[in-house]
From TrEMBL:
The keyword Iron applies. Its cofactor is Fe cation. Homodimer. GO terms for molecular function: iron ion binding; S-ribosylhomocysteine lyase activity. Involved in the synthesis of autoinducer 2 (AI-2) which is secreted by bacteria and is used to communicate both the cell density and the metabolic potential of the environment. The regulation of gene expression in response to changes in cell density is called quorum sensing. Catalyzes the transformation of S-ribosylhomocysteine (RHC) to homocysteine (HC) and 4,5-dihydroxy-2,3-pentadione (DPD). It comes from Candidatus Borkfalkia faecigallinarum. It catalyses: S-(5-deoxy-D-ribos-5-yl)-L-homocysteine = (S)-4,5-dihydroxypentane-2,3-dione + L-homocysteine. Belongs to the LuxS family. This is S-ribosylhomocysteine lyase.
């Protein structure tokens, strides 16, 4: 059986950041890596669940909403996947930054009531806000060279299709 693209990456070498993953059938997958894999520091289940609700809501209501197809957590609890179409890596990066900033202003976790969520009792607004703030600070500190390299990977994938 062939490995899927995300399993082909060396997770021990991977660092937190916003990584271009794949472009398949016109859909770009971005890896929003909040934590270094296999380093023992993971997003708590309740915070992960809340970040999912908060960022999904902010992205789907943000300026690039028509390009957002899916946002969801990684089972390893080190980050999230964003699937989009018709948007550049750099525009997606800016959309993620804006969505993270919007999360800081949320007073409750969207969609966290019993009728809206299949596990409504497992949410952590404070923990989610803390994770989002830390990730936003990480993104703001990324060197331009790293952003340009990820943007180049996405551009090459677009040319190859």
């Amino acid at each position: 059986m062939d490995k899927i693209p995300s399993f082909e990456k060396d997770h021990d070498a991977m660092q937190p950041g916003l990584h271009f993953s794949t472009l398949q059938k016109g859909v770009m997958t971005l890896d929003l890596r909040f934590k270094k894999p296999n380093a023992g520091d993971y997003v708590s289940p309740a915070a992960l669940h809340s970040v999912e609700h908060m960022l999904a809501t902010a992205l789907r209501n943000g300026p690039q909403r028509e390009h957002v197809l899916y946002f969801g957590p990684m089972g390893c609890r080190t980050g999230f996947y964003l699937l989009s179409e018709g948007i550049s890596y750099r525009a997606a990066f800016e959309a993620v930054r804006a969505a993270l900033a919007a999360c800081a202003d949320m007073d409750e976790v969207p969609g966290s009531h019993r009728s809206e969520c299949g596990n409504y009792q497992e949410h952590d607004l404070a923990g989610a806000k803390s994770e989002c703030a830390a990730y936003l600070a990480l993104l703001d500190a990324l060197p331009e060279e790293e952003l340009a390299a990820e943007e180049e990977k996405a551009r090459r994938a677009e040319e190859e299709k």
